[in-house]
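Sequence, please.
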C-alpha cells in the first residue's frame, strides 16, 4: 500500500507540472505535438525511475525485516533455552505459548528435547527430596487430599489443586515446587514420588512436534494415567494389557530405529515397558491375577492368548503368546497345578523373554 501511494503521488505531481512547459515551448519554438511527445518521454522516464527507486527501497526494507525477524527468533529461542537450562519452568511454561508458533518443527523439537533432558537429569534429585527425614506425614496428607479421586497419581493441568488441599506449609511448598517444575506425583508402595509429567509436556507441544516425539508422549501419558505396574504387580486388565502391548510394538515398528539413534533413552523407555508387559504375559502367576487359585491358567487368560494369535498383528506380541500357549498345551501338568510346580515355569518364561528381547533389538 505504501509503495502504491508513493507511485500515485509521483505520477500526480508529474501530471500537474507537465502543463507548465507550454510557455517554454513557445519560447523555444517547439510545436505543441512535439512538446507533448517530449513530456510523455519525460513522464515515463521519471515514473520508471521513481518506481525503480521505490522497489529498491521496498526490497531493502523487506531484507532488513527478514534479517530482523531472524535475529528476533534466534534471541527468542536463546531466551527460552536459558529459562530451561536454569530450571525456571514456571516462567518457561508461561511465555512459551507467545512464541511457539514462530518456530518451525525442528526448532520446536529442539526446545522439547532441551526441556525433556533437563527433567530427566534432575528427576533423581527431585525424588530424593521425598525420602528425606520422616516424610510419612506428607504422604498421609497427600492421600487425604486425594481421597475423593479414583486414583492417586497427580498430573496435568489441574495438578496444583492438590496444593490447595494440603495443610502443612512445608509439605505444600515442596509439592508445589515439584509440580511447577514439570513433574507429576505417582503413588507406589505406600509413598509418593515424582516422575515426568508427560501429559503436561504433551499439552505444551502437541501438534508442533515431529511424530516420534508426539507418539512417545502419547504412550507415556497413557502410562501415567493408567500404569502398567503397581510396584511389582500387573495393574491393568487383559484388554488394557493388549492395548498397551500393541501401542509399544507399533511405536517400535514406526520409530524404533530412528529414536534409538537420535534419543536412545526414549527408545529404552518404550522397550522396557514392552519387555515388562511380555514378561507378565509369558509368566502368569497368582500375583498378576492370571492364574486361578488352583494354579492353572484361567480361561480368560487362554482366551486372551488366542485372540492375539488370531489377530496376528504384531510379530513380537504374537510370538510371546504363541510360545506360552505351547507351554500350556504341552507342559500343563508339569508346570501348573501347584505352588511347587509353578516354580518350574519361571526358567521357561525367562528363556522366552530373553529371546524376544534379542529380537526386539534386531528388529527395531
Amino acid at each position: 500500500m505504501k509503495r502504491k501511494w508513493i507511485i500515485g503521488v509521483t505520477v500526480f505531481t508529474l501530471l500537474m507540472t507537465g502543463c507548465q512547459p507550454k510557455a517554454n515551448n513557445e519560447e523555444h519554438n517547439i510545436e505543441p505535438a512535439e512538446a507533448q511527445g517530449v513530456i510523455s518521454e519525460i513522464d515515463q522516464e521519471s515514473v520508471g525511475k521513481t518506481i525503480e527507486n521505490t522497489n529498491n527501497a521496498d526490497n531493502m526494507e523487506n531484507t532488513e525485516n527478514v534479517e530482523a525477524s531472524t535475529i528476533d527468533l534466534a534471541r527468542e529461542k536463546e531466551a527460552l533455552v536459558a529459562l530451561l537450562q536454569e530450571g525456571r519452568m514456571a516462567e518457561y511454561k508461561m511465555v512459551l505459548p507467545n512464541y511457539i508458533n514462530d518456530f518451525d518443527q525442528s526448532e520446536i523439537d529442539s526446545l522439547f528435547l532441551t526441556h525433556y533432558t533437563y527433567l530427566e537429569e534432575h528427576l533423581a534429585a527431585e525424588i530424593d527430596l521425598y525420602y528425606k527425614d520422616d516424610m510419612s506425614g506428607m504422604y498421609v496428607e497427600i492421600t487425604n487430599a486425594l481421597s475423593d479421586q479414583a486414583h492417586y497419581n497427580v498430573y496435568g493441568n489441574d495438578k496444583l489443586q492438590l496444593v490447595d488441599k494440603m495443610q502443612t506449609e512445608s509439605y505444600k511448598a515442596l509439592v508445589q515446587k515439584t509440580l511447577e517444575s514439570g513433574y507429576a506425583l505417582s503413588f507406589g508402595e505406600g509413598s509418593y514420588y515424582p516422575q515426568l509429567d508427560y501429559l503436561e509436556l504433551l499439552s505444551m507441544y502437541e501438534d508442533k512436534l515431529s511424530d516420534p516425539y508426539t507418539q512417545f508422549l502419547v504412550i507415556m501419558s497413557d502410562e501415567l494415567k493408567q500404569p502398567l505396574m503397581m510396584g511389582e504387580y500387573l495393574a491393568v486388565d487383559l484388554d488394557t494389557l493388549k492395548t498397551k502391548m500393541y501401542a509399544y510394538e507399533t511405536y517400535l515398528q514406526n520409530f524404533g530405529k530412528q529414536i534409538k539413534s537420535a534419543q536412545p533413552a526414549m527408545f529404552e523407555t518404550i522397550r522396557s515397558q514392552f519387555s515388562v508387559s511380555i514378561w507378565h504375559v509369558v509368566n502368569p502367576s497368582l500375583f498378576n491375577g492370571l492364574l486361578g487359585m488352583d494354579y492353572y491358567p484361567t480361561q480368560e487368560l487362554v482366551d486372551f492368548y488366542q485372540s492375539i494369535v488370531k489377530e496376528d498383528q504384531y510379530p513380537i506380541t504374537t510370538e510371546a503368546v504363541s510360545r506360552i500357549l505351547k507351554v500350556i498345551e504341552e507342559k500343563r501338568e508339569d508346570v501348573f497345578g501347584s505352588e511347587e510346580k509353578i516354580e518350574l515355569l519361571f526358567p521357561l518364561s525367562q528363556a522366552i523373554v530373553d529371546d524376544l528381547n534379542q529380537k526386539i533389538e534386531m528388529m527395531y
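The longest strand covers residues 183-188.
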